[in-house]
Amino acid sequence: MSNSDLLKELFTKYKLNYDRNDPNSKANDVYVHKHYTIITRQGIQKIEKEAHIYCDINILEGVSSPNNIVMRGVGTALGGQSYVTFASATTENSKNNYYAEIAEKRCRSRLVLTLAGLYELGAFGEDEADSFSDIVKSQRSTSTVAYKGNAVNE
How many other C-beta atoms can be found within 10 angstroms of the C-beta atom of residue 92? Predict the structure, then answer.
């Protein structure tokens, strides 16, 4: 089974929306870029709920400062599988100055996508990098986007 087929299967399992006739729809949970598949914030929340993933995310004290927030996250999926990851937001890697919230979103995206089996297939969370958010925003404002066959609800 190809990565594209596996992604479609997982997108169906997690009830992610993608309107093939309107790839720029704000209701889409998935955006396809020529190099990545990007899951929106609402898509991450759907996956977290459908996969019964619990995330425990905390600021790393002693490492973080007002302009450099580092989060440690532990995610646990139904069945006991767990994963630990870290995420940061700083003046160097975030356009936004609410660093704790950005780091938390990045950490949650990594936990959820890894535990759901999507990360290994090349899917990334919209919040993981400012450039991904920029891609989603530009696709929503563009009239045509090529469909790569990586999403469902066609």
Answer: 8
Longest dimension (CA), the chain: 49
For residues 151 and 154, what is the distance between their CA atoms, to the nearest angstrom? 8
- Tell me the β-bridge partners of 69: 89
Among the listed residues 153, 110, 142, 132, the one whose alpha carbon sits nearest the alpha carbon of residue 33: 132
Give the C-alpha separation, 40 to 21, whole Å. Answer: 18
Instruction: For residue 49, give both structure tokens.
Output: 């709920």
Task: Pull the structure tokens for residue 77.
Answer: 């999926």
pTM of the model: 0.81
Q: Mapping DSSP to helix (H, G, I), strand (E, B) and coil, where does residue 3 land?
A: helix
- Say if residues 75 and 116 touch (Cβ distance below 8 Å): no
Cα–Cα distance between 61 and 120 in angstroms, integer?
A: 30
Residue range 37-85, pLDDT digits in tens: 889 999 999 999 999 999 999 999 999 999 999 999 999 999 999 999 9
